[in-house]
Write a structure and sequence with these properties.
By secondary structure, this protein is α+β, with helices and mostly antiparallel strands. It contains eight helices and 18 strands. The N and C termini lie far apart (about 75 Å).
């Protein structure tokens, strides 16, 4: 079967010739046209050297493996490794690409992460974690066990392996005596118990500050799902929250009108970190209250950021302003 438009096929074909004719997709824009050609060629060479036939969907930025020694029919994303390469010298790209895909295929010794059988719940339950992903992962992984996360994300069930993270599909959990919600609750609790984030403080003008939490680079942002663990108990107005990348969680506790001094610097961080990657997650600024996330819209016009808050958020600001005037 011929490859669809804007896709290249690698098996016995010479994929590098096709790659030279590619238009530059949005997800790889910052590599530049020449950089993208080099990147695609190195990816193709990795799989060719391992006798694995692949199809690259250039529009979506994913690889579909077709056959080879791993006998795995699945999808692998390219955006994160592309972002990592963009931040490195080109003479390092081959090693980065090799290490990236090796970590996915290799767990220990000759055991492949793709061979692990999740059907035996008791055998793998200690490996289960919840993890936030961008919602567009569902464009090429529709069978993954998931539920909605904060807007723009999904909370997916994964296996936490020594060198990588592997999503769990619905077909692999058919023998479990758990619903999707129960399985994700189990994974979320495993994550909560497995680690805690480290807090740093970013001081802003006029006395405002942001809390910047970091930890495991796969899961730090996912800790937003149990954010109350990191917040004061008395926070009636909630907090501003950002999860621009999978390895960082940014928070501003709302106590007073200082929230407006924090909002624009948070937006600047969100835009910069989400654009930079790797592991870009959500471009949104959230207002968190009582476990719920509301998106606070913003606009970018000629690199000028403007917050466009919801009516409810404006009402909260009015309340804070009234309290400030009374004191």
């Amino acid at each position: 079967m011929p490859a669809p438009a804007n896709m290249s096929k690698l098996g016995h074909m010479n994929g590098s010739r096709e790659s030279e004719a590619l238009s530059l997709p949005d997800w790889a824009h910052q590599l530049g046209r020449q950089g993208y050609r080099i990147f695609v060629s190195l990816v193709e060479n990795y799989f060719r050297d391992r006798n694995m036939a692949i199809v690259i969907d250039h529009t979506k930025g994913v690889i579909r493996t077709q056959n080879g020694p791993l006998a795995f029919n699945g999808t692998l994303g390219l955006q994160n490794i592309a972002q990592a390469c963009r931040q490195a010298d080109r003479d390092q790209w081959r090693d980065l690409i090799t290490a990236h895909f090796d970590s996915i295929f290799q767990v220990s010794g000759n055991d492949s992460a793709l061979y692990i059988d999740p059907s035996d719940f008791e055998h793998i339950k200690h490996l289960l974690r919840a993890r936030l992903y961008p919602v567009d992962i569902l464009n090429h992984a529709v069978d993954v066990v998931h539920r909605p996360g904060p807007e723009g994300t999904i909370e997916a069930l994964v296996l936490d392996l020594p060198t990588t993270v592997r999503t769990v599909s619905q077909s692999e959990t058919q023998g479990w005596s758990l619903s999707v919600s129960e399985a994700l609750d189990f994974g979320r609790e495993n994550l909560r118990r497995s680690s805690a984030l480290t807090q740093g403080i970013l001081s802003l003008d006029r006395g405002a500050h942001l809390k910047v939490f970091s930890g495991d680079h796969f899961y730090a942002a996912t800790h937003a799902l149990f954010l109350d663990r990191y917040l004061p108990s008395d926070l009636p107005h909630g907090a501003l929250v950002a999860i621009p990348r999978r390895d960082v969680l940014i928070v501003h506790d709302i106590h007073n009108m200082g929230v407006m001094e924090a909002a624009i610097p948070m937006l600047e961080l969100i835009v910069s970190i989400h654009r930079e990657g790797p592991g870009s997650l959500s471009p949104y600024l959230y207002w968190w209250r009582n476990g719920y996330f509301t998106v606070l819209p913003y606009e970018i016009d000629e690199d000028i950021l403007t917050l466009a808050p919801t009516d409810e958020f404006i009402d909260m600001l009015d309340e804070l302003g009234h309290v400030a005037n009374m004191s």
